[in-house]
Design brief:
Radius of gyration: 27 Å
Number of helices: 21
Distance between the termini: 77 Å
Helix content: 25-40%
Strand content: 5-15%
Bound molecules: iron/sulfur cluster
Largest sheet: 2 strands, antiparallel
Strand order of the largest sheet: 1-3
Number of domains: 3
Oligomer: single chain
């Protein structure tokens, strides 16, 4: 085993374990100021896309320069040394792609459809330039964080290791689970298919590393064209011929496998073979960009959540205005992972097509804990800004309403004060009016009937969550009155 391969293996185990440790630490019981969003902040794709979509770079994302600058000189080292998604794909391929009679040389050779990732990258970058941030759907770090948060960790908690106080559930999580399984399963057929053909971060790193001086070099005098170097190649970058630098993951296995010592990693010398330039069809890149430019306004006019103040789109406290929120949220699921009550759920289409898998509060599942400010502290892009507890308890994210046709004191003259008891604001946003009633048998009774004081209601949703009319609670929250919006306000207000 060559020294470089051993070092790479140690690094890949270290970074994958670090990714898991940080994900486990993203929990209200363990969060102690750790940089839990470290891997999300390291992604150059998030850096570029949020810069284009929002013209800002949120503080932590500057860390991605730690990947970008070395990649310019050293090549795409991130993919086989640091990226937890790439490392997981590699391990899954290694374990499950051991079919008999498989021609490793063929399977690890470059194929033209691997260039698809560059067109996907173009599509996502043009969308970001128009202000629609969709890179998180495909960015491997967001993809893996979201998949672990929504499917793997809850499944593990259910079947093996207790990690949560209460089994978390995520509405629509099955779609995220199935996509994750499909990506992992694809490794059964082609090693690291995701990395080779789909990953837009890999494509971006391929572009950044296209001219790096340090790369795998083949000594044409020593090479006997045995093709043994292809056997374990991670990137399918053809080290036996003209190396495709932008596809090379720097796994170093080719150096290890070469019986002639014809390969090394370093600068060009006189014996070095020629190398292939980036395999992209410029015409197709332009066509992709133009098609996105034409499609985008059509998509916008068909589904534009930003102009609608949607009742069910209740965002976490500290969220910036909806348009800016969608320009910054990468749908990573960090906020959903840390939320202690499981109230944060991945949106389907309530926030429009653009808001797919962004966080919304679903109060039937949980409620916003009064003294909790965690989501704003783990969000890597500033879509949810960090708040102090003092500020958070005054931040309105919606307003409660009564459905008097279902509320027990209003509809059935039954005494119930649950919502008032759990309301955490001071003074309480729920108050009672004593009403004298004549009952069916002619007797009279004084009943407390609840009202909402909109000045004090912050829309935390605990009243909805605890309402004894479980199936369709008699008190419910909508986003109206949320502090982050100037338009989503009731025109007439209580004195
Ligand atoms: S191609 Fe993408 S998923 Fe694969 S290792 Fe590189 S960055 Fe990670
Ligand atoms: S502030 Fe509310 S929504 Fe955010 S993590 Fe805490 S309980 Fe969940
Ligand atoms: S709002 Fe939630 S899902 Fe969106 S970027 Fe922030 S932490 Fe990730």
């Amino acid at each position: 085993m060559s020294k470089l391969t051993t070092i790479r293996r140690i690094y890949s185990v270290f970074f994958f374990v670090l990714f898991l440790v940080l994900l486990f630490a993203t929990d209200f019981r363990h969060l102690k100021g750790y940089e839990t969003a470290l891997f999300l902040e390291l992604s150059p794709l998030t850096f570029l896309a949020t810069l284009l979509s929002s013209f800002t770079v949120y503080k932590g994302i500057i860390l991605s320069l730690l990947v970008i600058i070395p990649t310019v000189f050293l090549g795409r080292f991130f993919c086989s040394w640091i990226c937890p998604m790439g490392i997981l794909n590699q391990w899954v391929s290694h374990i499950f792609n051991k079919r008999k009679n498989i021609d490793h040389n063929k399977i690890n050779s470059y194929r033209s459809f691997f260039a698809f990732k560059y067109y996907l990258l173009t599509f996502l970058i043009v969308l970001a330039a128009f202000g629609s941030l969709q890179t998180g759907l495909f960015d491997p770090i967001s993809f893996l964080t979201r998949s672990f948060t929504i499917s793997m960790l809850p499944a593990l908690n259910h079947s093996a290791i207790t990690m949560y106080l209460k089994q978390p559930i995520f509405s629509g999580g099955i779609i995220i689970t199935l996509i994750f399984i499909a990506v992992m399963f694809s490794n059964r057929f082609l090693t690291r298919l995701w990395c080779r053909a789909l990953c837009p971060l890999g494509a971006l790193l391929g572009v950044i590393s296209a001219f790096s001086p340090m790369r795998i070099r083949r000594d044409t005098k020593k090479c006997t064209d045995c093709r043994k170097c292809l056997k374990y190649c991670h990137g399918a970058c053809d080290p036996h011929a003209a190396l495709r630098q932008s596809e090379c993951h720097l796994c170093m296995t080719c150096i290890e496998e070469c019986p002639e010592g014809a390969l090394h990693y370093g600068l060009k010398n006189q014996q070095s073979s020629d190398q292939m330039p980036l395999d992209v069809n410029r015409r197709r890149i332009v066509e992709t960009a133009l098609a996105t430019t034409v499609l985008f306004p059509m998509m916008k006019s068909a589904v534009n959540a930003r102009t609608l103040d949607t009742a069910s789109v209740i965002r976490p406290p500290g969220s910036i205005p909806e348009g800016d929120f969608l320009r910054r949220c990468i749908k990573c699921g960090e906020c959903m992972r840390v939320c202690p009550t499981n109230v944060l759920q991945p949106a389907l289409f309530e926030a429009g097509l653009e808001g797919l898998w962004s966080p919304v509060l679903i109060n039937k599942i949980g409620y916003c804990e009064h003294n909790c400010v965690l989501c704003g502290h783990v969000c890597p892009t500033g879509a949810i800004m960090p708040l102090t507890v003092e500020k958070k308890i005054k931040t309105k994210i919606g307003t409660a309403f009564y459905n008097r046709g279902r509320c027990l004191p209003w509809a059935m003259n039954i005494e119930c004060i649950v919502c008032e008891e759990v309301c955490p604001t001071s003074p309480k946003a729920i108050w009672f009016q004593n009403t004298e009633l004549t009952m069916r048998d002619g007797s009279t009774k004084i009943l407390k009937r609840p009202f909402i004081d909109t000045k004090h209601c912050i829309g935390c949703g605990i009243c909805q969550n605890k309402c004894p009319v479980h199936d369709s609670p008699a008190v419910y929250i909508t986003s109206i009155g949320e502090h982050r919006s100037k338009t989503n306000q009731m025109i007439l207000k209580a004195n």
